[in-house]
């Protein structure tokens, strides 16, 4: 019977990290105040399945119940803490501790906590864009991919360190694809328009950041340029040396006359 307000069992609190990396060691704990009474037992559960029990009056006081993927380190576990080695993503879920005071009342309290075991992405995020130069008003389309993680990484696009949000100008579409082994690939598509405020000295940085809680954060960058029209020379290039220009014109005229002479000779010779 649960009696969190019982006079001999107070302040029961379960503590556990919100998230932990796969392959590391995890400690789950349960603090309590028996107000001078004796402890009868403390039990830890994954979901509704018990995997660790501590009963001071038994010898030995610790008992472990086999569950897939759970490796209890008995030497680092006691009446308040259970230590788990080499945690894997399959251990993500809800955990509970159950504390019971000894006779005569056997007051019992149960507390729970949720845990996520993360697998970081196999690579840093990748950005793909249609091209690297854009005219003002032109559509910019890009996507960012973070591959094979658990859970799927959160993705955010930035323009010059300013995060992009969905609006009338900007559209964002997020997709998650299931992979083998329970992993997930995250994809974020971006569609926006090139506006003057984006460009600093004719270019801007498009950045994508992938995160998993506070345990993983990686970024990818690509620099995009403004495609500015080139001004054509309407009157042609000016020549600072008019004498040289006249000389060149004369040479061209003489070459033209000489070419016409050879054409005429060739024609007359062919008539013979």
TrEMBL record:
- InterPro entries (UniProt xref): Ig-like_dom_sf, Ig-like_fold, Ig_sub
SMART domains per the UniProt record, alphabetical: IG (SM00409)
Q: What start and end residues bound the annotated signal peptide?
A: none
**Residue limits of the Immunoglobulin domain?**
15-118
Superkingdom of origin organism: Eukaryota
Which PANTHER family does the UniProt entry name for this protein?
A: BEAT PROTEIN, BEAT VI
- What name does this protein carry? Immunoglobulin domain-containing protein
Q: Which organism is it from?
A: Nesidiocoris tenuis
Higher taxonomy: Eukaryota, Metazoa, Ecdysozoa, Arthropoda, Hexapoda
């Amino acid at each position: 019977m649960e009696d969190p307000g019982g006079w001999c069992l107070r302040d029961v609190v379960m503590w556990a990290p919100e998230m932990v990396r796969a392959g590391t060691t995890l400690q789950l704990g349960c603090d309590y105040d028996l107000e001078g009474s004796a402890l009868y037992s403390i039990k830890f559960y994954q979901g509704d399945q018990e995997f660790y029990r501590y009963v001071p009056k038994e010898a030995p006081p610790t008992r472990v119940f086999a569950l897939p993927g759970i490796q209890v380190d008995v030497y680092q576990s006691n009446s308040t803490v259970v230590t788990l080695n080499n945690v894997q993503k399959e251990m993500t879920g809800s955990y509970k501790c159950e504390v019971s005071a000894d006779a005569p009342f056997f007051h019992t309290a149960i507390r729970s906590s949720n845990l996520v075991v993360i697998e970081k992405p196999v690579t840093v995020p990748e950005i793909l864009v249609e091209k690297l130069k854009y005219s003002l008003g032109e559509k910019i389309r890009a996507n960012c991919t973070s591959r094979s993680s658990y859970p799927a990484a959160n993705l955010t696009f930035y323009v010059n360190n300013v995060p992009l949000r969905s609006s009338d100008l900007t559209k964002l579409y997020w997709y998650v694809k299931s992979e083998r082994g329970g992993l997930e690939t995250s994809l974020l598509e971006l569609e926006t328009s090139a506006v003057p405020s984006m460009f600093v000295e004719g270019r801007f940085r498009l950045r994508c950041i992938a995160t998993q809680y506070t345990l993983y954060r990686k970024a990818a960058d690509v620099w995009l340029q403004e495609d500015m029209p080139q001004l054509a020379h309407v009157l042609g290039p000016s020549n600072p040396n008019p004498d040289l220009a006249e000389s060149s014109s004369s040479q061209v005229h003489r070459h033209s006359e000489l070419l016409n002479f050879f054409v005429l000779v060739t024609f007359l010779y062919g008539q013979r």
